[in-house]
Amino acid sequence: MMGSLGYIFGGFSEAVRLLAAGDPETFSAVWTTVQLSGLSMLASLIVGTPLGFWLGHFDFPGKRPLRTAVDTLLAFPTVVIGLVVYALISRRGPLGDLGLLFTLPGMAMGQAILALPIIVALTATAVESLDQRLRATLLTLGAGPGRLALTTLWEARFAVLAAAVMAYSRVVSEVGISMMVGGNIKWHTRTITTAIALETGKGEFAIGIALGLVLLAFALLVNLALTGLRRRSRP
């Protein structure tokens, strides 16, 4: 028992040493994760926020089935997304000529698909929860479609930001897409999560713990941001 605990504590101490010394292999995975998550979140927010507004603001035939489909995609398995994206961007796929396989943009495509339903569904919910008199007031004041959308999203900004935080937490911790589309290439497409899986399998427990600590720090920052947004959104 004591030997097992010593093995674990030794791994933690070595992990702290690696982080303090700025181990290049460890921080390469961290930097790749930061770039990848930032790129995927930017794409998902640009596409998902307008779609969420449209889904939550307007009534149209087929809205309920569409909303059900979006909510279902919230639980879309990452390995399935990775499989679909891999098929699209591989050499034999329709986007094979773009050379996206085993690159950060290709991985970001998959992670953006993962984050998109979260952004769309939660933005739609935020828009639906606003005071119904807001739209009538804006139309009375002569607001056009663009102004109507921007003002509505501004009123729901804290909930939209909370949706972005939740999507980021899903993106930064996923493994399947990064492994299948990125190939886990050292110094190139290896992320925190894929590096943890690889190094732990190799018996490099300390490196796995070091990267796990960084991932926990990311999760803590995300939760602190979400808590702050919830407090600010309270009347």
Task: Tell me the layout of helices and strands.
Elements: H1 2-20, H2 24-57, H3 63-72, H4 78-89, H5 104-128, H6 133-140, H7 145-155, H8 157-172, H9 176-182, H10 192-202, H11 205-233
Short description, anyone?
It is built from 11 helices and no strands. It has 235 residues and is mainly alpha-helical. It starts with a helix and ends with a helix.
Could you characterize what this model shows?
- The protein has a domain at 31-191: MetI-like fold.
- Helices cover 77% and strands 0% of the residues.
- Helix 2 (24-57) runs parallel beside helix 5 (104-128) and helix 4 (78-89) runs parallel beside helix 9.
- The protein contains 11 helices and no strands.
- The radius of gyration is 21 Å and the shape is globular.
- By secondary structure, the protein is an all-alpha fold.
Structural class: mainly alpha
Shape: globular
CATH superfamily of one domain: MetI-like
Q: Please identify, by name, the CATH architecture of one domain.
A: Orthogonal Bundle
Largest sheet: none
Stretches where pLDDT is under 50 for at least 5 consecutive residues are none
Strand content: under 5%
| Strand/helix succession | HHHHHHHHHHH
Radius of gyration: 21 Å
The CATH topology of one domain is given as MetI-like fold
Query: What is the CATH class of one domain?
Result: Mainly Alpha
Number of strands: 0
Number of discrete helical segments: 11
Mean pLDDT level: 85
What percent of residues adopt helix (DSSP H or I)? over 70%
Query: N- to C-terminal separation?
Result: 52 Å
